[in-house]
């Protein structure tokens, strides 16, 4: 008799380090079956080795290549069952100040942060809609709430993900597919380690993973943390331009 497949997996795209790695380990230790993807098979194997045996399953792929994504999703569902929850976390960051503003940098950031998510959605949504079930968690950032100096590309990419999640939720409500958007603040990762400024409310990746997992299970649309930082940034979002720009220039040291 064929061996039963494990329960439908949670798939994390962008799971070789940082928030994605921490979430994979947190969920696996809670007893779930987790499929993880990123470009580096070696890094994915290292993440899986930290988890209880048989809980994390690596499926290397390139988030910017739709054929690679389609192959990974097909492989996951053949081996582990239909993806119940997908956390689309692949992303990157680089400062794009006006004195060194290059289209190549912006294109690279949008290609992964936005189009990587778009391509994963193209693969996943028809499957979930056909099944009448599934959960799509799009990882954005509180940086998507409003434009910040030296981060035009990153803020723009994350704002795009937030708006896209809102649009998709309006369409997928009632079709059995849950859409959520994840908006972390500063989390200690290899990307934020590059920052040369003090990061307010800096969180450890394990704390971010707990916040995301709690939010996924609570079914709320926006999973945003840490709460004090989120409230401050949402207050800034409500300011009119004549108040916002002088305030943000002062706060970020822009002369």
UniProtKB/TrEMBL annotation:
| CC terms in the record's Gene Ontology section | membrane
Cite a single Pfam family from the UniProt record: adh_short
> What InterPro entries does its record include?
NAD(P)-bd_dom_sf (IPR036291), SDR_fam (IPR002347)
Citing just one GO molecular function, the answer is:
oxidoreductase activity
| Alphabetized UniProt keyword annotations | Oxidoreductase
Q: Give the family, as the similarity comment puts it.
A: Belongs to the short-chain dehydrogenases/reductases (SDR) family.
PANTHER family this protein is in?
Answer: DEHYDROGENASE/REDUCTASE SDR FAMILY MEMBER 7B, DEHYDROGENASE_REDUCTASE SDR FAMILY MEMBER 7B
Write the protein's name: SDR family NAD(P)-dependent oxidoreductase
- Species source reads Marivibrio halodurans
